Automatic annotation (TrEMBL):
InterPro entries: C1-like_sf, DC1, DC1-like_CT, Vacuole_Formation_Reg
Residue span, DC1 domain: 108-157, 166-217
Transmembrane segments: none
PANTHER family to which the protein is assigned, alphabetical: CHP-RICH ZINC FINGER PROTEIN-LIKE-RELATED (PTHR32410:SF153), CYSTEINE/HISTIDINE-RICH C1 DOMAIN FAMILY PROTEIN (PTHR32410)
Domain DC1-like C-terminal: residue ranges: 240-274
UniProt KW rRNA-binding keyword: no
Protein known as: DC1 domain-containing protein
Organism superkingdom: Eukaryota
């Protein structure tokens, strides 16, 4: 059995290396660099059991090729930290959320943040960045400051604070909504307006260029998804493609053209979400 487990481990590692290679070929995005150094086992404040690093690909683990992170509820594919499987399936975290440990130093706040809210408090509190409220958002996990009452959800806490934009030689910096600032700028990417006082924030260049971009326009609505194939359910496959044709495709069943970085194709129909 010793030999067996060694073989198993070796094949796991070669699979891991292979996947890292595919990923680094596919993107130079810094959002994925973390995976190369990720430890195989991990304790996380959010879960009682230790989590194991796996690759959620079709075939390898008989998965669907994607998962929703239990902290930020973002759609993700590839690496996953997973708890032991129970009736509800396993607890899952993407690499970014799994790398959040206490005390968490969020660059946008002066004090360290903790997972210190009770489940009831977490459900009823509102993130000060995205300010999303309602049932759909209540499950997003939240970090809080013990010194003041600052609260931020995992989705906002794990957005890169600085991000590269190919048409600006400086790093763009995340800026939260600006109270009382009724001015507006223009998004360099989609060329529509950015209202500075709108919730959710935006990215801008602090070095004299007046570059401003929407968060979704810079990172995509699904920053942790890659082009490739996943399964919508056991029967239907979904192709994920770069959305880079000049004439954007019509979104099936919606009255818009899909503008996001990625599109999902199911049986010749195009969607901008799964
Ligand atoms: Zn997450
Ligand atoms: Zn948020
Ligand atoms: Zn504080
Ligand atoms: Zn935009
Ligand atoms: Zn600049
Ligand atoms: Zn669409």
């Amino acid at each position: 059995t010793m030999k067996k487990s060694l073989v198993k481990r070796a094949s796991f590692q070669s699979m891991r290396v292979a996947t890292i290679r595919v990923w680094s070929n596919a993107t130079s995005s810094s959002m994925h660099e973390a995976c190369a150094n990720a430890p195989r086992k991990k304790q996380h404040a959010m879960h009682a059991h230790s989590l194991t690093l796996k690759v959620d690909n079709i075939g390898f683990w008989a998965g669907l090729g994607y998962f929703y992170c239990f902290a930020c509820y973002r759609l993700s594919c590839g690496f996953v930290y997973e708890g032991p499987k129970d009736i509800l399936g396993g607890f899952k975290l993407d690499l970014r959320c799994a790398s959040v440990s206490e005390p968490f130093q969020y660059e946008g706040h002066e004090h360290p943040l903790f997972l210190a809210l009770t489940p009831e408090e977490e459900k009823s509190s509102i993130c000060q960045i995205c300010q999303e409220e309602g049932d759909e958002y209540n499950d997003w996990r939240k970090l809080t400051c013990i010194k003041c009452s600052y609260i931020i959800c995992f989705r906002c806490a794990t957005l890169p604070y600085k991000a590269r934009y190919k048409h600006d030689k400086h790093l763009l910096v995340f800026r939260k909504k600006e109270e009382g600032n009724d001015h507006q700028g223009w998004c360099d990417i989609c060329e529509s307006e950015i209202v500075y006082s709108r919730k959710g924030g935006f990215y801008s260049c602090d070095d004299y260029c007046s570059t401003t971009v929407h968060v979704d326009c810079l990172l995509g609505k699904h920053p942790y998804m890659r082009p490739g194939q996943i399964k919508h359910n056991r029967l239907h496959e979904v192709l994920i493609l770069h959305n880079k044709t000049m004439s954007r495709p019509f979104c099936h069943g919606k009255d818009h053209r899909c503008q996001d970085k990625l599109v999902f194709k199911k049986r010749n129909m195009t969607f901008c979400s799964l």
